[in-house]
Amino acid sequence: MEIEAKLHALGLALPEPMRVSGMKLPFAPVRVRGNRAFISGAGPLNADGTLAEPLGKVGADLTLEQGYAAARLTGLVILGSLKRELGDLDRVTAWLRVFGMVNVAPGFTQTPSVINGFSDLILELYGTERGTHARSAVGLAELPLRIPVEIEAEVEITG
Amino acid sequence: MEIEAKLHALGLALPEPMRVSGMKLPFAPVRVRGNRAFISGAGPLNADGTLAEPLGKVGADLTLEQGYAAARLTGLVILGSLKRELGDLDRVTAWLRVFGMVNVAPGFTQTPSVINGFSDLILELYGTERGTHARSAVGLAELPLRIPVEIEAEVEITG
Amino acid sequence: MEIEAKLHALGLALPEPMRVSGMKLPFAPVRVRGNRAFISGAGPLNADGTLAEPLGKVGADLTLEQGYAAARLTGLVILGSLKRELGDLDRVTAWLRVFGMVNVAPGFTQTPSVINGFSDLILELYGTERGTHARSAVGLAELPLRIPVEIEAEVEITG
What we know:
- Three copies of one chain form a homotrimer.
- By secondary structure, the first copy, chain A, is of the alpha+beta class.
- Chain A has a single domain (2-12, 46-157), classed as CATH 3.30.1330.40.
- Chain A has three helices and five strands.
- In chain A, helix 3 (111-131) links the parallel strand 3 and strand 4.
- In chain A, helix 2 (64-86) runs parallel beside helix 3.
- The longest helix of chain A is centred in the middle third of the chain and has 23 residues, at 64-86.
């Protein structure tokens, strides 16, 4: 429970599963197969699983700093999904691939600085060796439900 | 041939390979390595391999319902590619990752409801255990040839 | 050193690591785990690691041909990262997945012809068997630092 102890020490809590009414979502938040876990695209949520505001486009509805905070919150959402699927976050032995998508206003190109909110959290919790990941951080035309950030990932786990 | 029997029972046929003239496509529809199969981004096709209309942007040129139908058709295209590569669709032992891209008109954010056309088909054919997948469903600025939907995926296969 | 000999014969050199000031990039260009190497999204660079011009959107700031050249240059950037990580480019035993993102002007849909600049280079160097890959080539709303092309990939390597 090393990772959860760290979360606790940082004063961070994992949110409840996403609670969005009237929307069919026929897929798994995390798909595990052998030592591989594929993580579905996730966005920022409040502690109770409702969508975290502000919604909209970074560079218009959100500042860069608000985008960074949304990406960090998305990290907690993904850790919450991993915790529910794996039981213990220490079972993640390596972060592999992170695909960071930013809901951009036209002309907003500082997408890496937004997704840093996610990467910084993962490195803070897992350290350099386990936490290092390959990454893209790019600007999307639209994201579901007007979330400002969506992140999908792949991690290696132990049985 | 369980999956093909199901397709037959549902009255669904797998389309021919994509037939687009004057376009060099130096990549494989499916790349197999060991028990992993990577599926290239595919869009909706008619039975003869030509592009399925309507083309364009969901939320402007296509309704949500037409987008759903395009995503379901894209599922048949991908199954056609897998059938040609693997010989038998029963060799797919687990759907792992689905990345759904919707060609969006500005402001169209119901991308998950579009990509459900794909996920619903896969779950219908493969059932929950094999068919469940991690997924993202996002809005792209432009897609090749103005296709309304493009989906790439990774599946696990048996030798 | 077969691949490097081919690069030399073609008169191609691998650029230095990306040199961008004032930007925190908390991730690895290549993440290796077992026989898998995940390659972070990369864009075109000059030999000294600075951003290669022209920057901007294909279909407005760049022609299709300039986009193709940018994608080919991105291939050299990725090979440079793999060389630094693996020591020898011959250790890449199979290209698996290529995700090609084009910074598009509205209405530019010839994204596959742009990303061909990357695929053609890889096939030229690695041949059909090792070089064949699954691929998507799509249009993004914005890319970091206004780069015209960004490509991420996964390859199989030998120990």
